[in-house]
Design a protein that fits this description.
Elements: E1 44-49, H1 61-67, E2 71-75, H2 82-86, E3 95-98, E4 114-117, H3 127-132, E5 136-141, H4 144-153, E6 161-165, H5 187-198, H6 202-222
Parallel strand pairs: 1-2, 1-5, 3-5, 3-6
Antiparallel strand pairs: 4-6
Helix pairs in contact: 1-5, 5-6
Length: 248
């Protein structure tokens, strides 16, 4: 089976030598690998991570791959084909890429959280049939601009389907990470959302989100407590000559 953490196509990560956990590359205080139970997924998952996204303490790409037996995680900017990225033969026409692009919430058909798009970015008329043909999904890990770079540098993605999400709930990140759009999810949340609906197995999403929540709880526990703001009137920090009512 292909190593889900094969990164031979780029230089080794500088942070890996200092990481406490060799699997998730997170500090020991944030590692939850010992609680992860792998799930057998029928729909394949390929996570392509932009190189500049590697050193994120709150990143979820590796955790998502650890959770799924049929998952491959790669770091880089471009691959000549889907098969090259996966490390095995694959038909790109049977795969879909999660890429929102310029899709806005109001562009989604009423009541749909998951939409298959054509090459022009318009929803396909026969959604259920298009979803049933999908054998695997590609998730791009990085910021919005980094995901756009991965999309345009891998022309083979245009041969497959394109999927967009409009989740009804915000990310579990909450205030820990700012997102440019409300519907933005972490890589783990996106993968969990996709696979649970494509396979009609809500337990996939439940398991991955539970692990994500545990990681976030540990992260919050490691952060120093912020001093509380004073509740009384704010002190006057203006210079003496700027204060009103001063004597002459």
């Amino acid at each position: 089976m292909t190593d889900p953490f094969d990164t031979d196509d780029i230089a080794p990560e500088p942070a890996a030598a200092e990481a406490d956990c060799p699997r998730c590359l997170k500090p020991a205080a944030l590692c939850i690998c010992d609680t992860v139970v792998p799930i057998e997924n029928r729909i394949g998952l390929l996570i392509l991570q932009h190189p500049q996204e590697q050193a994120k303490e709150l990143g979820t790409a590796r955790l998502a791959a650890l959770h799924l037996t049929n998952a491959v995680f790669k770091i880089g900017l471009s691959w000549p084909s889907l098969a090259a990225a996966l490390g095995r033969p694959a038909d790109p026409k049977r795969w879909a890429v999660l890429y929102l692009g310029s899709m806005r919430p109001e562009d989604f058909p009423p009541g749909r959280e998951l939409v298959v798009l054509d090459r022009k970015g318009a929803p396909l008329p026969e959604q259920e049939g298009a979803l049933e043909e999908i054998e695997g999904v590609v998730v791009l890990d990085g910021t919005w601009s980094q995901a756009k770079t991965l999309w345009w540098r891998n022309a083979w993605m245009l041969k497959g389907r394109r999927i967009a999400l409009r989740p009804q709930r915000p990310s579990l990140y909450g205030k820990l990470r700012r997102e440019p759009r409300r519907e933005a999810l972490s890589t783990l949340e996106s993968a969990a959302f996709l696979l649970s609906r494509l396979e009609e197995r809500p337990e996939i999403e439940a398991a991955l989100l539970a692990s994500f929540a545990r990681m976030l709880d540990r992260y919050r526990a490691t952060q120093p407590a912020r001093p509380s703001r004073p509740t009384g009137p704010r002190p006057d920090r203006r210079r003496p000559q700027q204060r009103r009512g001063r004597g002459r």
